[in-house]
Amino acid sequence: MIDAGHGGDDNGARLGSKLLEKDVTLALARKIKAELQERGIGVRLMRDGDITLTLEQRAEASNQERAAAYVAIHAGTPGGGVRIYTPAFAVESEAGAGKFLPWDNAQGNYLPLSRVIARGIAGELKRKDITAVMLGTALRPLNNINAPAIAIELAADPDNVQDLTDQKFQNTVAAAVAVGIAQVRAQLGGQE
Amino acid sequence: MIPRHFQIMIALLLAAILVSGVYILKITHKEQAKSLQRLEERPVAPPVAGKQEHIRVLVAYDEDRALRWRDANVSLPQERYLRAREVLRALLTQYLQNPSPHPLGKGAEIRDVYFINSETAVIDTSPQFADGHPSGILLEEMTICSLIETLNANVPGITRIKFIVDGHERETLAGHADLMSFYQSSAVHDLAKEFE
Q1: Whole-structure pTM over 0.90, yes or no?
Q2: A77 located within any domain
Q3: Which of B57, B80, B91, B150 sits at a 20 to 30 Å CA gap from B102?
C-alpha cells in the first residue's frame, strides 16, 4: 500500500510559494506504483487523486486490504535527499502476543520487519548516490498499521524546494524504493 | 418636479453616505482584529517568583537538523507543575527570538503543565503553537523531542507525556507528529539521540 500523504483539504506543508506537499507526494506515489508493477509486485495507491482522507481512514484501508507493507510518502524541509522513517513509539509485541492488538500499537508485531524494509530502501538509495537518512518517527498513522510500515520523506532546503519536483530525482527515488521493497520481498520468500 | 441639480446633489450625498458606511465598517473590523490579537498576546498569568536557577534546554536547530543542549537562567518556583511550565517557557523563548534557530508561530506559548499523577504530565499549548507550527515530519519531531527532553532534564520522574492544544486533544501538531498518544520519555530520549 502506497499512501501519498495529505490530499484534498489537507495541503500538508507549503513548500515555497507555489508547491504543496500533497502534490509532490501524489506524483512520487504514482511513480513508485509504476516501478513496483514493473517488478511484478501488486500495489495499491491509498489515493490516486486530490481527495481528503483522515489518518484513521488510511490505517483502516491499509489494514482491511491486508497490505503486505505500507509506505507513507511525504515531502518537507529542511535537508536534502530522502529521509526514511520507522515508527519510534510502537512497542515491540512479546512473542505469542496473538492477533488482537491495541489500535495504538498495531505496529508492535511488525517493527523488526519495518526496519528491514527501511534499511533495504536506504541501501538502494545510497547505491544510487542519493543521501538517505534513517530516523524514528511519531508520524501518524504508522503505529495503527497492521503490517510493516515506513514513511519516506523527500527533503529539500527551503531555497531549493523545486528540487522536490525534479523528475529525474523522483524517478530515481521511486526506482530505489521499488528495488528495496522487491529485495526484501525476495529475502522473505515472496510474501505479497 | 424636483430640479435636476437637486437630484444630482441627493444622489451624491447618498453615495457619500454609502462609501462612508463601508469605510467605517472596514476600519471597525480592522480594529476588532487588532484588539483580538493584542488580547491573545497579552500575558495571562503573573510572573512566577522563585529562585534563579541554572537549567539546560535542548534546542532544535533547523539549519543543521540537530538538537543541542544550551544553558539558561530562569526563576523557578518550587511547585512541580509551575517549574515544568517555566522550564518549557524558557525553551520557547529561544524559539521566539529573532533570528530563531527553530521558528514557531507568533503567539506560540506553553499555557500550562498538568500532572495526572507523579509520572504523567500533560502539556497544554496555545492554539498558535500548533496553528503556526511549520509543517513537516522532521520539524515537528524536533519540537516534540526538544520539549520532552528539556522537561525530563529539569523535572525528574516524568515517564509519560501528552500534548493538548488550548485544552483540547488534537490529532497532529502540524499534519505529521502524533499528538493523540502519550509519549514515553525513554523512547523520546532514544529518538533525540538521533538528532544530537
Answers
A1: no
A2: yes
A3: B80
